[in-house]
Predict the structure of Laminin G domain-containing protein.
Amino acid sequence: EEGAWEGGCVASQSREGMSFWWPFLFHTPDRILAFAPRPEPPVPNLKTANPGLGPPSRFGCDKWTFKLELEADLGSALASEGVTYSTREASFSFDGDDFASFHFPRNGIGDGAFSILFEFKTDHGCGDHDYDKWNDGCGLVDAETFGVSIGSGHVLFGVGGGTQGGGTLVSNDSYADGKWHSVLASRRVFPSGSSEIALYVDGTEVGTETVSACFDCPTLTAPTLTAPLNIDIGRLQSGSQKYFAGELRNVLHCDPITPH
């Protein structure tokens, strides 16, 4: 089923590609789902690596159409049960067996370099053991070949099938405290084909790591990411397909940006 995003923002930039700001209002004749707009990006004091791309708060907003699928128990499409809209918090609430899937032109981000920003709140840490692989956690924002998850309350970000120390960054602290936390996860690509990933939580750097081109293969074809044309919010697309229980809002996928 197709619907329209009103206020969903698309910003052109100096090289091929687009940046996508997911929020605001998705509507069909019989349902409304929304993220609230924000005057500032989730992580304060951001600057872009690409001078042709303005900060998220200055994106030009136009009406934009996405295909949105909401599924319950991997079953019926556009099932609203389990994925609810909170007017007070202006967020999506996931009950642990549902997700939202946003379709977009993957090659629009260009060369496999990107940033993901969002905010989450949960008191469910997803398990109670040590996680060292991002795609073993419960999915927060996942594009199959890269993504951010939570495991035992720790935030995990990675690319390909890499484990901690070779493709996955893991926060030292647990954030399953029922409070809102902001996440910035980025990947940069170098001419050699290797890449660097970085993770920030609440504006504080968790760490950075250089990932070799061969480590990205075959899941990632360096330097361009290859995967289905959608990003899932609230679950992992592959592997364990673990679902997130909690709230998510203000998801941004764009060219690399860094705190300053």
User: Anything to note?
Assistant: The chain is about 0% helix and 45% strand. The chain has one domain: 2-259. Confidence is low (pLDDT under 50) at residues 1-90, 214-223. Residues 213-216 form the longest helix (4 residues).
